[in-house]
Amino acid sequence: MFRSKLKTIILAISVTMMAISLISFPQESVDASIRGLNMWWEIVFPSLLPFFIVSEMLIGFGVVKFIGVLLEPLMRPLFRVPGVGGFAWAMGMASGYPAGAKLTARLRQEGQLSKIEAERLVSFTNCSNPLFIFGAVSVGFFHNAKLGVILALAHYLGNFTVGLVMRFYGRNHEVANKEKTKVPSIRSALSALHRTRINDNRPIGKLLGDAVMSSIKTLLMIGGFIILFSVINKLLFHVGITNLLAGGLEVILSALHLPVELSIPFISGLFEITLGSQMTSQVQQATLMQQAVITSFILAFSGFSVQAQVASILAQTDIDFKPFFIARIFHGLFAAIYAAILWNPIYERFYNTEQPSNAVPVGLFGENSWLQKWFTIMIDTGPLITLIALAVYVVLLARRLRSI
Q1: Domain range for residue 288?
Q2: Which has the closest alpha carbon to 139: 373, 349, 372, 382?
Q3: pTM of the predicted model as reported, rounded to 2 decimal places
Q4: Number of domains in the chain
């Protein structure tokens, strides 16, 4: 009872302080809101919408079940999750935050995952996509496309390691599965695909409409969190809380032989990864390796903004958020360690232009690479895609309300 009352008081004080800060710093709040809105408007919405819609349709048509049957012998021994987790893992890496949580929650609602399996799966299926790592962070912030190799390797190796660690989660509470894993066959996978589609029993038009409505609704929620935490991050800086937290962090950075100037970017990155990565790239007192280590932690931890998005998605199910949060800390530590370990054997060899055999292909990661061109196209056409999608959402919503 006391803890509940204390929590109520803390939440009330926090919200009140935020309201006072908004009134005290109106211009800074508006600027932060516009920054968060632009990121959602130009990048997040148009890049995630196709993945969300296609994922919903793949689940409805039974393709995910088909993939799950084939991947069962791989995912079960490695991560102790069903084969359908392989689809969520791949889509999470391809589309970025918070697609992994969205798919995991959807699979849990479909009954294809147990509660423990869903908590394991969501812990390592949320990660940054290659477009953001190479396009936004490496080229956009650091102006160094080759740095993306280290950031991506550290990020995805850390993600894989988290999956291996989290396989031990919930062993004591999980019902032992004594059935031996069967060798998959195309025939059994096709049978599972057909049964799933028949059981869904929705017409194609209804399935497509549901996919669009669900995806846009989720993205609207994501946009709200991005804007909110962009404002919170800016207000914390102006009221001095960021500097206060950074003062305590400086002791840890000094013990790790890292410049204390990285403390404020690190704190900012704990709230919002884009701002934290950008501020880290601007610290002149740090070497590129030190910047890469801090940025790797920020990308892997994913920030409270993304974690709030995931918490909102998981709240629609019985999946506990705590394992996901603990996994983010592990992922941040693993990614930072991998970045430090891989720096000399990987980056130094790529950076050495005297060894052309080890150079990074310009067509893939260079300044004019297809990743950078795609990132530029998203910024140019993203708002138009967002507007069209929102218009479609309004039309579909109006039709449904009229048919009720």
Answers
A1: 26-172+179-403
A2: 372
A3: 0.84
A4: 1
